[in-house]
Amino acid sequence: MLSYSKAQKEVTKIRLASSLAADVLEMVTSYIKPSITTGELDAFCFMYITTIQKAIPASLGYYGFPKSICVSINEVVCHGIPKYNHIIKEGDIANIDVAVLKEGYYGDSSKMFYVGEAIYIYKELCIVTQECLYLAIRSIKPGIRLRTIGKTIQSYVEHKGYSVVKDFCGHGIGRKLHEDPHIPHYNTPDNGLILKEGMVFTIEPMVNAGERYVLVEEDGWSVKTKDHSLSAQYEHTILVTKDGCEIMSLRTEEPLSIYIHSI
After folding, report:
1. 1 pLDDT exceeds 60?
2. Sheet holding 163-164, edge to edge
3. Which of 18, 19, 62, 107 has its CA 20 to 30 A from that of 251?
4. Residues paired with residue 223 on neighbouring β-strands, in sequence order
């Protein structure tokens, strides 16, 4: 059975790319204000990645995706295409998803932003989504079944009265943006796959305030909730270590240590 573990030199480069993705999310925070367009946010990120980080925005041109980041507002679950005529408004929630290619390796991360004053029910959804990601991260260590990640997420989310999107999942990452194994965010058969030291993958639960069902818009990319309910997502790139895991895309504002010791 494949272990999917990376060599140390690969881990070093994925760590660099992941830290750059986190850096972009920190940089763009000050621009998230009412009346800015999603197209402007994309332009800021493109310039930062290419001129400051000397890296490549991995989303740009990926299977034809036309922009450098994904910006998903309110009922948009993922893959929202930034546009200069799309103005974000007071009270919106926005997910920004950033993938960076540096020295031949990828890093991937996303987070939710409140636009102006957060509406309580919007904020609660985001908090639950971030916490289910953190719970999954805390469960990671060598020797556990892959399905433990999804089981942990689904149990917490449904206990809180929300639903987990099942159409998309986390993924291995390295020389390619999306590699095996798939990382489901719900309890499902995993063919007996056991986590091993050196595995690198993303966990990126998408949580809906309503039902889990989604649909793809006419642009071929933007995914929305079928019932028009709100959706939220957080994502980190994770390395399985000898006694837990490393959050390779950790941001400075987060209340976690970069190293999680679970054994």
Report:
1. no
2. 163-164, 206-208, 231-233
3. 62
4. 78, 216
Please check whether residue 53 is in contact with residue 16, taking contact to mean a CB–CB distance below 8 angstroms: no
The first and second tokens of residue 1, run together, are: 């059975």
Comparing CA positions, the residue from 203, 64, 230 lying closest to residue 147 is 203
* Separation of CA 179 from chain center: 15
Residue 97 labeled ligand binder: yes
Residues 6 or more apart whose Cβ sits within 8 Å of residue 149:
136, 139, 140, 170, 183, 184, 185, 203
Closest CA to 162 of 187, 137, 126: 126
Pairwise CA distance, residues 22 & 10, whole Å: 18
178 is in an annotated binding site: yes
92 is in an annotated binding site: no
Judging by DSSP bridges, how do beta strands 93-102 and 105-114 pair with one another? antiparallel
Please state at what angle helix 8-28 crosses helix 38-47, rounded to 10 degrees: 130
Check the annotation: does 261 bind a ligand: no
| Structure-block tokens of residue 235 | 């994502």
What is the C-alpha separation between 74 and 248, in angstroms, rounded? 27
Residue 235 marked ligand-binding? yes
What is the distance between the alpha carbons of residues 9 and 15, in angstroms, rounded to a whole number? Answer: 10
Summarised one tens digit per residue, pLDDT across range 69-120 is: 999 999 999 999 999 999 999 999 999 999 999 999 999 999 999 999 989 9
Distances (CA, A) of 168 to 38, 185, 241: 23, 8, 25
pTM above 0.70, yes or no: yes
